[in-house]
Amino acid sequence: MSNFPIDLFHLQNQVPKAPTFGAKLGTDKRRSEKIDWPLSLGAAVFRSASHCLDYDFVTRNPDYKNLVAYINTGEHGWLDFDMQDEDKVDLFVRGARKAAEFLRGFDWAGYKRIRQQKKDLYS
Which pLDDT does position 74 carry in this prediction? Predict the structure, then answer.
């Protein structure tokens, strides 16, 4: 039921020995969908089901936002299996740029301090 099972790597009462990074395509959207026929209703239900657990986990564990790079996919539908080559290159470049930006700004020592504080709360 999860497109992004980052919760599998999260132990509430431990400071991780190494970071686990995630790259999430698109941003978290908490908005209503336009539903104008049965197929769009089915698609909206599927999207809700596949994102609900992920959204709930990150909401309950905001420290994990420090480990996730959100990649803006622009106008590309990342599930478009018939994507043109130039769109594939654009999507790849967007991901590579975001990964570089994210890794340059990641503060491992700072993240371990955040997790130590959480561990202390649960001890």
Answer: 87
Structural domain includes residue 83: yes
Instruction: For 53-69, write each residue's pLDDT tens digit.
Output: 777 777 888 888 899 89
Give the global pTM. 0.73
What 76-80 contacts at long range (C-beta under 8 Å, 24+ apart), as own/partner pairs, is: 78/25, 78/26
8 Å CB contact between 54 and 4: yes
- Note whether 64 and 111 are within 8 A (CB): no
Domain count of the fold of the chain: 1
**Segment 69-90, tens digit of pLDDT:** 989 988 887 677 889 999 999 9
Which helix (H) or strand (E) segment holds residue 122: the answer is: helix 108-122
Where in the sequence is the domain holding 85, given as residue range(s)? 6-122
Does residue 1 lie within any of the structural domains? no
pLDDT of residue 95: 94
Tokens of 77: 């539908």
- What distance in Å separates the CA atoms of residue 21 and residue 43, rounded to the nearest whole number? 28
Helix (H) or strand (E) holding 24: strand 22-25
Only one residue has tokens 């470049």, namely 93
